[in-house]
Amino acid sequence: MEIDSEYYIKKVLIPPLERIFNLMGGDVKAWYDAMPKSVKFDHLNKTNLKNLVVHSSLCLNCGQLINVVPTKGHSLVTPPKLCDDCLADELKTFLDVQYKKKTAEKELNDVLTVCKDCTMRNIENNSLNLHTALLCTSEDCPIFYDRIKLQGRCEDVLSKYSELEW
């Protein structure tokens, strides 16, 4: 009997790791989903397995699995960042990416505005900018952890989509 590694990772390992890393703004499930996965071919014998190497990744826009089988003599191939469907409709993909980036930035800006308003109440000078909200370190505030999480998510989204060249 073989261990189902996918089930073990998703059901046993990821939940406690998420509880730990969510406090620091990390998203373990998204990190695991973004990792390249190997594809199993049970119908191949060991001699054919040496000749077959499959690289896979997920489409940055829609999350569809992209498999790349390298040609002879090219064992290492960098998988494309977008699937065929997203490459075919480049304008829609560009708009989707821009929407995701703007949404992440808006969510972070909304939380920073709440932090700024709270910080302004606690400081006499009411001419504070959003940068002052970042100086807040009140660990009793639930918004503090939301802000940390959203900062990480916003950085992840911006770095993920910066790999695309338009």
Strand and helix map with partners:
Elements: H1 5-21, H2 28-34, H3 46-49, E1 55-58, E2 65-68, H4 84-88, H5 90-122, H6 130-133, H7 142-162
Helix pairs in contact: 5-7
Number of strands: 2
Unreliable stretches (pLDDT < 50, length at least 5) are none
Q: Report the sheet with the most strands, covering strand number, pairing sense and barrel closure.
A: 2 strands, antiparallel
Overall body shape: flat
Q: Roughly what percent helix?
A: 40-55%
Distance between the termini: 48 Å
Order of strands, widest sheet:
1-2
Helix-and-strand structural type: mainly alpha
| Radius of gyration from CA coordinates | 22 Å
Helix segment count? 7
Relative strand content: under 5%
Q: Would you list the SSEs in sequence order as H and E? A: HHHEEHHHH
The oligomeric status of these chains comes to single chain
Mean pLDDT over the residues: 78
